[in-house]
Write a structure and sequence with these properties.
Layout: H1 3-12, H2 14-31, E1 38-47, H3 59-76, E2 99-103, E3 119-126, H4 129-153, E4 163-166, E5 170-173, H5 178-216
Antiparallel strand pairs: 1-3, 1-4, 1-5, 2-3
Helix pairs in contact: 1-2, 1-5, 2-5, 3-4
Amino acid sequence: MIPAEFFRELARRWYVAVVMIAALAAACVSLWPGQHVYSARSAVTFLWPGSVSLSKVDDGGLAALVNFAAMVRLAIDDGQAQESASFGGSLVGAGVRNGFTVVLPNSGGQWSSEYDQPRLTVEAVAATPQAATAKAEALVDQITTAAADLQRRLAIPTQSFISTSAAAVDVADGGASVGTRIRGEAAALVIGVLLTCTAVVSVDRVAGLRRRGEKAR
């Protein structure tokens, strides 16, 4: 089909083009914001009595604190937390859109395990920053409560309790970047133009076949 024939068909079936262009515009508008997922992250550090979060942990007590952090993690693990260490420590990076994780950081890398940080890191992902923040804050509260409950069950005097220091919750938008959205819009535009051309040609040909069939009768 030469271009002149297509433009004649387009002129005859202009209403098809209008409908398709309107649908394409609606699709581009709906796709532009992208699919957003928000990640809220925090960390809870375990400290000996009298220590502060900025102080250097005594090497002699580091292992005990790390072990205690691991016990607290087990105490709050209800089987729903997703293990993020296997994919680099980020739920968003793993494509998770709704979930949470509580991790004892592994400093040993991919092929070895080395736990030398007396802290638990938490991450919660959700469709809104409010939901992600609320879940991360709830996880921090669970860790703090579990640490105190565990020490009470062990009959440790209150003045000798291991304390916790929670970092502020940091929220990040893990949705599609501007560049990704532009590429997506361009792809949708190309597909939309091709579908519009196909629809115009198809409708015109069907109408032509119908007219010839009516004349034959």
